[in-house]
């Protein structure tokens, strides 16, 4: 079987725009950040002779991409709600350069809006719905579109056809290592996250999340709510290979929606990593028992990325977080005592938000005092329950539906009768200022810088970016 000459592409976009397939919020960040394009790298690992171009972190323009596609048969583009209009323009440029090219799009946007995406995406030949790894492999093998499960496509008459759904992957060990694609096509130093050591590598050890958070993008669109996992041995084998390929890596990050959903497995993976002597971090819910935290810490865990979202219990109920504020407090106290750093994420503008709850959440964050934090604006992505709520209740208007402004910076898309877009938007800056501009937090950051010349350089650069971010927001 002759594989189609296939390019996997994260297209150029706004300067500094993190739209990669591993990004949960496709936007320009407060501090320049880029997640790995793992959702593209996985099918690329299945397609022999393919290439992956991740244009934004590589700061690559269209010229080298257009040169590449002149010798391609197939391009698979990752897209998102905020970047879709721009991505369609890129697709047209690719088609103009090579009219015989077949172009497919993947990502949460097209997974939940396949017909609308094809109607608005003239140069796009097909979109892949839901989990798409083997879908793309079959297309790259040259199978007729009519025979491929999981796609919506345009036939020769221009009609849109929806094939039957593809079964989800149950045996996650059947997928090849994405590390091979990272080594072949990416420069890992291009990927930077403010709270992770640099350079870092990010992979998934499973897909899906049993939690039902109403705002969360991937479980409601692509991954599902059943946590399907790779075996600890399979994960350890990839980390062993990554250590060999990238001896400069300082930290491995497991980007599963909630790595701690399966506690015995998390402990088993930790023990394998302990044998390898690596430093690692992961996403976690703020309810991990102290005994498990002790096992993880003893085997190389450095940091947990924790979605607190809000300090108000009613809002947590409203978004189906399944979390008690007091449980989160106890968990955070345990992490502090054990020396596990926390990057806490919070969201302003969720259903039930008021001026008072914003202040309550800021107070909560300063009290539990994670090492670093990120404050996002509630983003009602199509396909999520939050989007359905917002549409039905009139919380979302068309002028804010794209989720970002003309510079790629996140907007406040939701508003309520008692709380305006502007009040929610301004709450982000207030949150950052009240958290970071405290004497103890400033002292902690300075102490960190004094002890490490590398950290000194890094924090100074981040500080410049952060203050520019605040300046740009005030000008918006």
UniProtKB/TrEMBL annotation:
This protein's record includes keyword Transcription: no
Gene Ontology CC annotation, any one: cytosol
Swiss-Prot/TrEMBL keywords: Iron, Iron-sulfur, Metal-binding, S-adenosyl-L-methionine
A Pfam family hit: Radical_SAM
Radical SAM core domain segment(s): 195-422
Domain of life (superkingdom): Bacteria
Cited InterPro entries: Aldolase_TIM, BchE-like, Elp3/MiaA/NifB-like_rSAM, Hopanoid_synth-assoc_rSAM_HpnJ, Methyltransferase_Class_B, rSAM, rSAM_sf
Cofactors demanded by this protein: [4Fe-4S] cluster
Stored SMART domains: Elp3
GO MF term set: 4 iron, 4 sulfur cluster binding; catalytic activity; metal ion binding
Gene3D superfamilies attached to this UniProt entry: Aldolase class I, Cobalamin-binding domain
SUPFAM superfamilies tied to this protein: Radical SAM enzymes
NCBIfam families membership: HpnJ
Protein name per Swiss-Prot or TrEMBL: Hopanoid biosynthesis associated radical SAM protein HpnJ
Species of origin: Gluconacetobacter liquefaciens (Acetobacter liquefaciens)
């Amino acid at each position: 079987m002759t594989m189609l000459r296939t390019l996997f592409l994260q297209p150029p976009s706004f300067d500094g725009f993190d739209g990669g397939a591993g990004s949960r919020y496709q936007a320009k960040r407060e501090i320049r950040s880029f997640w790995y394009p793992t959702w593209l790298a996985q099918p690329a690992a299945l397609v022999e002779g393919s290439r992956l171009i991740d244009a934004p972190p590589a700061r690559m323009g269209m010229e080298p991409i257009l040169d590449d596609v002149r010798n391609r048969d197939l391009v698979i583009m990752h897209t998102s709600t905020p970047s879709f209009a721009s991505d369609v323009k890129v697709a047209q440029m690719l088609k103009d350069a090579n009219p015989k090219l077949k172009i497919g799009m993947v990502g949460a946007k097209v997974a939940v809006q396949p017909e609308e995406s094809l109607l608005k995406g003239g140069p796009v030949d097909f979109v892949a719905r839901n989990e798409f790894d083997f879908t793309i492999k079959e297309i790259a093998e040259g199978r007729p579109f009519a025979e491929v499960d999981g796609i919506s496509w345009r036939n020769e008459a221009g009609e849109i056809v929806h094939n039957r759904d593809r079964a989800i992957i149950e045996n996650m060990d059947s997928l090849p290592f994405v590390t091979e694609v990272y080594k072949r096509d990416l420069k890992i130093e291009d990927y930077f996250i403010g709270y992770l050591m640099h350079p870092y590598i990010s992979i998934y050890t499973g897909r899906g999340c049993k939690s039902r958070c109403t705002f969360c993008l991937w479980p409601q669109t692509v991954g599902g709510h059943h946590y399907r996992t790779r075996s600890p041995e399979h994960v350890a084998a990839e980390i062993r290979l990554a250590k060999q390929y990238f001896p400069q890596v300082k930290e491995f990050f497991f980007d599963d929606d909630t790595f701690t959903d399966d506690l015995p497995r998390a402990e088993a993976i930790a023990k394998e990593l302990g044998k390898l002597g690596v430093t690692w971090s992961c996403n976690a819910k703020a309810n991990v028992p102290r005994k498990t935290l002790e096992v993880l810490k003893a085997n190389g865990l450095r940091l947990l990325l924790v979605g607190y979202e809000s300090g108000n219990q009613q809002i947590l109920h409203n978004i189906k977080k399944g979390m008690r504020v007091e449980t989160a407090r106890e968990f955070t106290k345990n992490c502090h005592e054990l020396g596990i750093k926390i990057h806490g994420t919070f969201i302003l503008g969720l259903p039930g938000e008021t001026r008072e709850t914003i202040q309550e959440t800021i107070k909560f964050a300063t009290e539990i005092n994670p090492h670093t934090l990120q404050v996002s604006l509630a983003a009602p992505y199509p396909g999520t329950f939050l989007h359905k709520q917002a549409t039905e209740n009139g919380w979302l208007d068309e002028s804010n539906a794209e989720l970002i402004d003309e510079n790629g910076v996140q907007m406040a898309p939701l508003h309520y009768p008692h709380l305006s877009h502007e009040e929610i938007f301004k709450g982000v800056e207030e949150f950052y200022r009240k958290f970071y501009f405290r004497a103890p937090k400033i002292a902690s950051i300075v102490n960190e810088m004094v002890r490490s010349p590398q950290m000194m350089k890094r924090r100074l650069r981040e500080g410049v970016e952060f203050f520019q971010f605040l300046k740009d927001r005030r000008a918006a």
